[in-house]
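Suppose you are handed a protein chain with no further information: no name, no annotation, nothing but its sequence. What can you learn? This example shows the usual starting point.
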Amino acid sequence: MKRFFSLQTSALLGLVALILLSGEAFAQMTLPNINLGFKSTDNPNEIVNTVKILIVLTVLTLAPAILILMTSFTRIIIVLSFIRQALGTQQMPPNQMLVGLALFLTLFIMSPVLTQINNNAVQPFLDGKISQEVALTTAMAPLRKFMFNQTRDADLALFVKMSKVEAPKTRADVPSSVLIPSFILSELKTAFQIGFIIYLPFLVIDMVAASVLMAMGMMMLPPVIISLPFKIMLFVFVDGWSLLVGSLVESFG
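A reasonable first move is to predict its three-dimensional structure. Written in structure tokens, the prediction is:
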């Protein structure tokens, strides 16, 4: 027992000595000095750099909303969730995998739009060739074009009516505050339509399995247990993932 306490005491003393030595080492280190405050300056470059930092922080704050609601991510993740529920595989594939697949498919589909934004807005703004206002307007142009191509006229007319603004004559007259919710509503409708089509063949398999079990008098056995292997087999035989991903990508054409 005394030996145990002596070992504990030695370990505690060694830990204290290590902390003291670490404190002395940190005290001798030279750390960068950071000053936060306001000051007047006559150098335009300092103002530009500050504005750039604020813009980057703002974009990073709004990035999740922009990625989810103004791109193809919404339709893709809803359809992938529908296919998992239709198969009845519970949490397989897991949520992280579905979100990751939806994210990379979104980047693949949106790559032409992102390339235009980078070439026409981001790079000229970083080089100082255009102002911030021009960069934002130029960056929104390809994104608005993408959203217009996927938005139904009925949904757009609905939000134009609810916003009580003057009826736009051209697409350029439609404000982004009206276009974005119209695009989101259209994406939800399209995703649920695709989900309904996906459910049909798997629903038939569930009905056949339930009918067979009822005819055999095995009413206590859940039909899902019998239909699940057949649904997975059907999905694998028809190369379901390739068909699903290919159809999703082509739906944005």
